[in-house]
Please model this.
Amino acid sequence: MADLLELARKILPRRIKIVADARPEALPLHVDTVELRQVVLNLVVNAADAMSKGGTLTLRTSLHTELPLLEHFKGVRPRLPVVCLSVNDTGCGIRKGHLEAIFDPFFTTKATHKGSGLGLYNASLFAEKHLGCISVSSTENVGSTFQLWLPQADFMEQERDQNASMATAQRRRSLLLAGRAPELLASTSELLRLHGYYVATADTSEIASDLLQSPQYQFDAVIIHAEFNDTTFNSVAAEVLQRAKTGLKLAVRPAGCDQDALNPFLRSNCDLLLSADIPEVDFLSRLNQLMVHSTPTA
Model:
């Protein structure tokens, strides 16, 4: 907390008043220190952006023997006792309709050049990875509070191993959909999100490659919607093949053509070949089977 406060005072403008409300005793956690610092600093910067005319930022730590009711959260409910680190601001607040989507990848209310939409998503991955969750409460024109809920550690090696295996089992899978059929991309991404997947879309090979190479985003599988003898995404498929040892999978689904009309490179190198008219239930079932046999990348 002392380090975080010092960093916050260095990066925040003078219009922001910083208040610390920390528990006097140590609250041990099994976390990556660098990742924790990045998550909290991102929350701090977001809070400052919400207070363009000035306000108060409060960093608070607390210990709970019961988990309160959390209306908007991502991650898993941590075991007790649970440590909470909260970032509160007195800024513009968040629209009620945005609260359900605030932790989704690429969701942002900022201008295009000011935010990637990955900061809060990465915060949710961090919380989930450490068997906890992140929650948000907000009132427009009053302010917002983001809270990291993480299980208090007792530093037992057995607990650390259990935490790692449970985090791997419970992490939501992330998919990249690539293709030039906008309606198919939209309907497929909506279907997958409704069934618990994180989804990003790319309508060009350049965008798909940029997302694959981004250190901010890690995928478990890439689904290419290919048109007749389309070589557009061959480079993307080749990049996926290079990362096969990390568990990254490649699925190919025709867009407006049958399997025989697909580009041979895509057809012969994918882990999962789907038909263009595959029913939704079969599509989800085969994709889930592919994910079961993949190695999580985060």
